[in-house]
């Protein structure tokens, strides 16, 4: 066993995936190499609190790691992310193999800490303090190839305290990253081969509206902080950037200038994930979302006016405390009215310490499951309909990897576990079935000429003209246009 091998297991949202990717690159830059679970010395679990029973899931993964590394006496575990922030050094007592815990703000120091742990066997480290400033990462630690679709953090934390959400407690208060640092990282990624950039934050629409942004503006001698719309324009103007996306926008904070950007910025993709959560004004109020359906539909209409072909996706929580059958019907009606191309829907479950945990009138599990099934049945039908309507269209597909087998798709921006593999290309050498995304973010599989004809990198990162010829359940199949 090499002394400097690591393996990362990632749970949760795209921000966690992005943090893990950065950590992997930073460790590689420090001379570490990736290894499979059971062979790696450093076993990192990047955790998420959003789903049900997050602690139990982490405990079970740590049990798996302990089992897999029982013959490796130097092996140890690292727990990062939201559950690490909540449980903290409690992990040290329960799992002796855990030697580092780090939260969102501590991730920037994790590579140095891991290096120390490798050199000092008795040491344990916890990086759990929230910092007042955005925890900028050391760009020197970030090297190696970049994927065609890259992600760039623009903020950390959230100030909204939605009734059901643990994020403000685990990621801390909102801190915007300096606009110059965001634009610089985007420019470097484009220089190194990225074609598409997704700007990431818990609530990107409130970028620039926090104490950290004010402090930066004052320090720079600027009159006011850079707004999200201004940041979008600055990033979109980078030469060579073919596609720009962002996630996640909160409807209450979306500015008219951000909506207008969909009509004026050619490389801003016509797809927006706009979390609705419920179609009932009564439930939205109980959730503390600070918008109602009239406001949400007004945003939808203005987005469609700015960019008529825009596709929307959303998040829905089914069975929030007190949700009646009529509230749920209102949600279904809202989904039909907007016509979401996709949605991520979950049954409500308590998160300890949140306001919703204290609310009465909790629904029973069977009722929540039945409502969720109804909602997902509608969504599946509608998504298939959307995909079928795209057959025959000419589009451009950004190829991001070889399919493991013809017709295989990549997952959506969805919760789940993401394990290992940071090299960007999957599949067998010489295979000809590639996967990619169209401007709407739809997964498209396309058969390409032999890989060697795509140059030394194969077809990775090429944007190719495709005609859609078939719609599958969650993806499209296209043929290369001459
Ligand atoms: S906006 Fe609401 S749901 Fe989203 S991270 Fe902040 S508190 Fe959580």
Defining key terms:
iron-sulfur, single chain, Transcription Regulator spoIIAA, binds iron/sulfur cluster, iron, globular, 20 strands, 4Fe-4S, Rossmann fold, five-stranded mixed beta barrel, 14 helices, 482 residues, tRNA processing, seven-stranded mixed beta sheet, 4 domains, alpha/beta
Q: What is the 3D form? A: globular
Mean pLDDT, to the nearest integer, reads: 90
Number of domains: 4
CATH superfamily annotation of the largest domain: Methylthiotransferase, N-terminal domain
Number of DSSP E strands: 20
Which cofactor or ligand species appear?
iron/sulfur cluster
Helical run tally: 14
Indicate the CATH architecture of the largest domain: 3-Layer(aba) Sandwich
From the alpha carbons, calculate the radius of gyration and give it in angstroms: 22 Å
**pLDDT < 50 stretches:** 406-430
Distance between the termini: 50 Å
Main sheet: strands, sense, barrel = 7 strands, mixed
What share of the residues does DSSP label as strand, in percent?
Answer: 15-25%
Characterization of this structure:
The protein is an alpha/beta fold. The chain folds into four domains: 5-127, Rossmann fold, CATH 3.40.50.12160; 148-165 and 174-269, Transcription Regulator spoIIAA, CATH 3.30.750; 271-389, Transcription Regulator spoIIAA, CATH 3.30.750; 394-480, Beta Barrel (OB fold (Dihydrolipoamide Acetyltransferase, E2P)). It is 32% helix and 21% strand. The chain is built from 14 helices and 20 strands. The strands form five sheets. Strands 1, 2, 3, 4, 5, 6 and 16 form a seven-stranded mixed β-sheet that branches. It has a five-stranded mixed barrel with strand order 15-17-18-20-19. Strand 3, helix 2 and strand 4 (76-81) form a beta-alpha-beta unit. Helix 10 (256-264) packs parallel to helix 12 (293-306). The longest helix is centred in the C-terminal third of the chain and has 25 residues, at 365-389. Residues 406-430 have low confidence and may be disordered. The structure holds iron/sulfur cluster. Residues 158, 160-162, 165, 167-168, 202-203, 250 line the site of iron/sulfur cluster. It is found in: Cytoplasm. It is an enzyme of class 2 (transferase). [4Fe-4S] cluster 2 binds at residues 158, 162, 165. [4Fe-4S] cluster 1 binds at residues 13, 48, 82.
């Amino acid at each position: 066993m090499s002394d400097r091998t690591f393996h990362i297991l990632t749970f949760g949202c795209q921000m966690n995936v992005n943090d893990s990717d950065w950590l992997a690159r930073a460790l590689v830059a420090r001379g570490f190499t990736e290894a499979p679970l059971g062979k790696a010395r450093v076993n990192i679990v990047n955790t998420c609190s959003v789903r049900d029973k997050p602690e139990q899931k982490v405990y079970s993964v740590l049990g798996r790691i302990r089992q897999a590394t029982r013959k490796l006496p130097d092996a140890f575990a690292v727990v990062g992310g939201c559950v690490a922030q909540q449980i903290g050094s409690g992990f040290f007592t329960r799992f002796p193999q855990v030697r580092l815990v780090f939260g969102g703000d501590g991730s920037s120091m994790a590579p140095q800490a891991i290096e120390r742990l490798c050199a000092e066997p008795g040491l344990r480290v916890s990086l759990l303090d929230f910092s007042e400033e955005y925890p900028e990462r050391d760009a020197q630690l970030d090297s190696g190839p970049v994927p065609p679709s890259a992600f760039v953090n623009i903020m950390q934390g959230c100030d909204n305290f939605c009734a059901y959400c643990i994020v403000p407690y685990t990621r801390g208060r909102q801190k915007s990253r300096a606009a110059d640092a965001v634009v610089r990282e985007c420019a470097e990624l484009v220089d190194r081969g990225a074609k598409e950039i997704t700007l990431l934050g818990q609530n990107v629409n409130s970028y620039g509206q926090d104490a950290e942004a004010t402090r930066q503006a004052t320090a720079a001698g600027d009159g006011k902080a850079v707004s999200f719309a201004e940041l979008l324009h600055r990033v979109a103007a980078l030469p060579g950037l073919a596609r720009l996306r962002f996630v996640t926008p909160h409807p209450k904070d979306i500015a008219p200038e951000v909506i207008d950007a969909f009509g004026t910025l050619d490389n801003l993709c016509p797809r927006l994930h706009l979390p609705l959560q419920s179609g009932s004004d009564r439930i939205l109020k109980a959730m503390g979302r600070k918008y109602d359906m009239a406001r949400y539909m007004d945003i939808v209409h203005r987005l469609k006016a700015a960019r008529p072909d825009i596709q929307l996706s959303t998040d829905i929580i089914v069975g929030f405390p007190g949700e009646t059958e009529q509230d749920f019907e209102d949600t279904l009606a809202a989904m039909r009215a907007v016509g979401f191309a996709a949605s991520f829907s979950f049954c409500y479950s308590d998160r300890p310490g949140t306001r919703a945990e204290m609310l009465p009138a909790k629904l029973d599990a069977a009722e929540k499951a039945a409502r969720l099934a109804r909602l997902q049945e509608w969504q599946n039908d509608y998504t298939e309909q959307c995909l079928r309507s795209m057959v025959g269209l000419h589009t451009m597909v950004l190829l991001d990897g070889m399919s493991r087998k013809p017709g295989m798709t990549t997952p959506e921006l969805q919760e789940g576990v993401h394990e290992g593999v940071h090299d960007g290309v999957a599949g067998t050498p010489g295979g000809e079935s590639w996967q990619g995304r169209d401007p709407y973010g739809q997964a498209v599989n396309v058969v390409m000429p032999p890989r060697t004809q795509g140059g030394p990198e194969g077809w990775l990162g090429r944007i190719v003209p495709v005609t859609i010829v078939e719609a599958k359940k969650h993806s499209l199949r296209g043929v290369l246009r001459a």
